[in-house]
Design brief:
Blueprint: H1 16-23, H2 36-49, H3 54-76, H4 93-103, H5 108-119, H6 125-135, H7 159-177, E1 189-194, E2 199-200, E3 206-207, E4 211-216, E5 224-230, H8 237-246, E6 252-258, E7 274-279, E8 282-287, H9 298-313
Parallel strand pairs: 5-6, 6-7
Antiparallel strand pairs: 1-4, 2-3, 4-5, 7-8
Helix pairs in contact: 1-3, 2-3, 3-4, 4-5, 4-6
């Protein structure tokens, strides 16, 4: 029977990175661990002594591994960051987990600056969650759950993933740009929502926009809803019909194209619909949308209530 070392619970205050460094170095802690069951027992004992759940301890260990891998990658690029155990305040296990997920699917132009910001504790979890929300659909629901499961990554040979990532790049650019593309560069409020609820445009038609931006130009101004449809630029009757049906539900409608797309199809869409191109280089307004207050309707009221509930849960 393998005797596990006693683990002191007197390391205060609780720091996940200090504990992770300790647990990732069993030999340095005096342990001789011959199999996975022994290590699991050590984790269980550690959790009991520190009055933590085993799940939280395993999460710290996983985040520690991510941090060390990240530190090695940054070192190869000429950056020096602290060792595990000296991680800056604001760098949490959840931040590192989200960064690791994003790095498997987002472009290098997004990931590399983000890595430096995360290890410096400069990116709130809320912002990382929003970015992951944009890029998560690219993997089509694939996850890394399960033992010995290879974490899914972006496949540049998969046309569907390539198209989906272009759309995610559009969303990331819209978040980064703020409300300037809406015609409100100094807006007092700007929030972008994905996975929006279906909007009932008529008795028989309901449509879900790819994104909705809530914009308030000034503190005393009414809130505006800017609906966004993301497309490859191939205008067709279904999109044209959707745009016409939704024109009275939100204040402004926009078609967003990936940065490298052609905007030649702009004339195919209703004149009041704005057109933008967006990607890693930012957002370019090809044609501004006509902003007008929608007529009072059950569809608009229902949409506002839903977005308000989601905003309060963030």
């Amino acid at each position: 029977m393998i005797k596990l070392p006693h683990i002191s619970s007197e390391l205060t205050p609780w720091r996940w990175d200090v504990k992770a460094a300790h647990l990732l170095d069993p030999k340095g802690s005096g342990a001789t661990l011959g199999d996975t069951r022994s290590y699991s027992a050590w984790i269980r004992e550690f959790a009991d002594q520190n009055k933590k759940t085993q799940a939280s301890i395993w999460r710290a260990v996983s985040a520690g591994r991510i941090y060390r891998d990240l530190r090695d990658r940054l070192a190869k690029r000429g950056h020096r960051i602290p060792d595990l155990g000296q991680v800056p305040e604001g760098v949490s296990p959840e931040c590192l987990e989200l960064l690791e997920k994003i790095s498997r699917v987002a472009p290098t132009e997004v990931v590399e600056p983000l890595e430096l910001q995360v290890v410096a504790g400069e990116v709130p979890r809320r912002e990382l969650r929003k970015l992951w929300e944009a890029y998560r659909p690219v993997l089509g629901g694939q996850t890394a759950r399960g033992r010995n499961v290879v974490a899914p990554r972006f496949d540049p040979k998969d046309k569907e993933q390539v198209h989906s990532r272009l759309e995610a790049d559009v969303v990331a650019a819209l978040r980064q740009a703020g409300a300037a593309w809406c015609g409100c560069p100094a807006a007092s409020l700007y929030e972008l929502f994905l996975n929006t609820p279906p909007i009932r445009a008529s008795r028989t038609e309901s449509y879900a926009l790819d994104a909705i931006a809530i914009v308030q130009p000034g503190l005393d101004d009414p809130v505006q809803l800017h609906g966004v449809e993301i497309t490859s630029g191939l205008a067709g009757r279904p999109l044209d019909r959707r745009l016409k049906a939704l024109s009275g539900v939100v204040e402004a409608l926009w078609v967003a194209l990936p940065a490298d797309s052609s905007a030649r199809a702009v004339k195919a869409w209703p004149e009041e619909v704005g057109v933008i191109t967006a990607g890693m280089g930012g957002v370019v307004v090809v044609r501004p949308a006509v902003v007008c207050a929608p007529k009072p309707s059950a569809a608009t009221e229902s949409l506002m209530r839903n977005l308000l509930a989601r905003a309060l849960r963030r």
